[in-house]
Write a structure and sequence with these properties.
This protein is an alpha+beta fold and 282 residues long. Helices cover 13% and strands 28% of the residues. The strands form five sheets. It has a six-stranded mixed sheet. Strands 7-18-17-14-15 form a five-stranded mixed sheet, with no helix packed on it. The two termini are 36 Å apart.
């Protein structure tokens, strides 16, 4: 099952992608891909629906972010050893945490804006995790994985000067407008299988920049969720970005090929679809 949201920005409706690649309207069955719909019971109800009974959406509607109602958007930095090495950082002994605001999230094909005065806008393909049940002080990795509603393709766009050179925390370089395309769809956890065996790739203007696997994470998905639950409560609809592998602009030789208006970025994760964004000027 592939759950999505379609329609103009701010007016998206819930849907799913059927076996023939057609969008089916879910608005008669669920208010949105959020909250209760992402709990184990909610996912089970959606999986029980025969897609053939749902209306086909005609035309070529915009795809919005595949989930909404996110309360917490937590990200993990330096979670691939090759990425830590290319940026000159020491591999962490505990997960590095930072937050993005939910309003950075846009659709998978929406325009991404290079911020005003930006000189170091960078790309990062990431596995996104959507929480489906409350996670609080979890003890085991099995408990952690039981809290996953599903997985998504996420683009953690970053502005490295804002992030690293302007003082304070990383948040300034992570929360610029449009800085997290999400989707095209959410795939329930049971349909994905092992989240540590997914290939992920990213291209800039047709040139392959990142090509890795989630098996190379320092802290796997289960440990990330277990760890986070010791410090904060995660609830249905919350989103976690799990880090990016090597190949970002920050790790390239000088002059580093940071993104400029007009650049096109494409990215994909096995089984979770593909994104394409053209970058514009804020």
């Amino acid at each position: 099952m592939k759950l999505l949201r379609y329609g103009p920005a701010g007016q998206e409706k819930p849907g799913l992608l059927d076996a023939e690649g057609r969008i089916r309207d879910l608005s008669g069955a669920v208010p949105d891909i959020a909250g209760e719909a992402l709990t184990p019971a909610g996912i089970a109800r959606l999986k029980a629906i025969d897609p053939a009974t749902l209306p086909v959406v005609t035309g070529n509607p915009r795809l919005g972010p595949c989930v909404t109602g996110t309360g917490k958007f937590v990200c993990i930095g330096l979670n691939y050893s090759d990425h830590a090495a290319e940026t000159g950082a020491t591999a962490p002994t505990e997960p590095v945490l930072f937050l993005k605001t939910p309003d950075t999230v846009v659709g998978p094909y929406d325009e991404v804006l290079v911020p005003r005065k930006s000189v170091k806008t960078d790309w990062e393909v990431e596995l996104g995790v959507v929480i489906g049940r409350t996670a609080r002080y979890l003890d085991t990795h099995a408990d952690a994985l039981a809290c996953v509603a599903g997985y998504v393709l996420s683009h953690d766009v970053s502005e490295r000067e804002f992030q690293i050179e302007r003082g304070g925390t990383w948040d300034k370089g992570k929360n610029c407008e449009t800085f997290n395309p999400l989707g095209p769809y959410l795939v329930p956890a049971e349909d994905v299988g092992d989240p540590q065996d997914l290939g992920l790739r990213l291209w800039v203007n047709g040139e392959l920049k990142q090509d890795s696997s989630t098996k190379n994470m320092i802290f796997p998905v289960a440990e990330v969720i277990r760890y986070l639950s010791q410090f904060m409560v995660l609830r249905p609809g919350d989103l976690i970005n799990t880090g990016t592998p090597a190949g970002v602009a920050l790790g390239q030789p000088d002059p580093k090929p940071y993104l400029r208006p007009g650049d096109v970025v494409e990215l994909e994760i096995d089984g979770l679809g593909r994104q394409r964004q053209t970058f514009g000027a804020a």
